[in-house]
């Protein structure tokens, strides 16, 4: 647990620094680009993410699972990662060639207005490089080398942040500034990761190991594809039904809410490898107690984001982005629900029931489509947020019960429900109209945060020694 605590500090440091850079850059981008221009870049990223994700054939999941089969053999681990990378490199290269040849036709289908030359191509190449980098980063995560993970991830964030600002201020590239920054940061990260890994792990390919991964990943390919569609469907439909400007405003709200999921992802880099290990060691009865503090921290961050999003947007963003406040609040419910997906996914993969994942994802797509179309027509970006949230909560809940059927975890249900219930109470206060309570709004919100901290002590999830140790560990890592 001591090692987990140290790694958690590294991951959270990376999440916080990346989050600060994002929060600084977002208002600058919003003031330099119109919502429509920002929406073009967002839609390009959405479609690139869907297609590049599909071209991986779910191999990242197969790689992550089989890592634990070979973690005692450095030679086998090298064959594992290079076999996966070789397959994906060929796949995404063919994809990029296709985009280069047909980018104008593709752009006319995606965008409702004129778009810059090479916008799609640059975003696709950057997304392909990012997908390849994930295999190296997963290696560091599974190996417990959180410090290296932090350094490399911050490198990408720092380069993207710096390049975005420099290009916005020193050129007339407009939306292409984001595309160039995305391309540069991800290609640089991939190059450095490759050189660092090859230095200690000579390139080696093993067809048998690749086939083992593909047996796990190919059944997940529909899930990966429909998963991307499901998570990005709100933006796709906004682009088709509404406008790229609506996509730009929605993206601001979603990006702020996404800090919750990014924080949980940082936590997941610590607890997900342990979930696999405890399942392989037949210690599933210990998982609930182990996971509860991570859930508590996730709710804590979600409360802060949801409660204070209004103040953040009013102070730092142009007035045309004001409705993004409601997107942040509603989507915070969605992202918190995804916490349990970080557990049920490994449960089903461990049980080799990967065929269930695509079925769940496909069901999510159908529900998302059924809700998004009428919700967007009726309520615009807020409707898109509610449709996504309802779908996410519903499918995550179904996935939880199915996963429990195959690999049972004895959850402390009462404590989890109390934390989640308090969070929903906070959402109600965040959505309230405070016009008649001027001066009380901030006090009420800080009181809710204080009550939640008290609840953590009351439920014995945290204690003074734990808080003191965490602060000392964090201080030690920064010094």
Q: What sequence of helices (H) and strands (E) makes up the elements? A: HHHHHHHHHHHHHHHH
Give the overall shape.
Answer: globular
What does the radius of gyration come to?
22 Å
DSSP strand count: 0
Instruction: Work out the helicity level.
Output: over 70%
Backbone structural class: mainly alpha
Which consecutive residue ranges, at least 5 long each, have pLDDT under 50?
A: none
Question: Number of domains in the coordinates?
Answer: 1
Largest sheet: none
Return the average pLDDT rounded to an integer: 85
Strand content: under 5%
Ends distance:
22 Å
Q: What is the count of helical runs?
A: 16
Blueprint of the fold:
Layout lengths: L1 H31 L2 H21 L3 H12 L3 H37 L8 H24 L3 H25 L4 H26 L6 H11 L3 H21 L2 H37 L6 H30 L7 H27 L5 H51 L6 H19 L9 H18 L5 H15 L1
Description:
The longest helix has 51 residues. This protein is 85% helix and 0% strand. The two termini are 22 Å apart. Helix 2 packs parallel to helix 7, helix 9 crosses helix 13 and helix 10 crosses helix 13. The chain has one domain. The chain has 479 residues and is mostly helical.
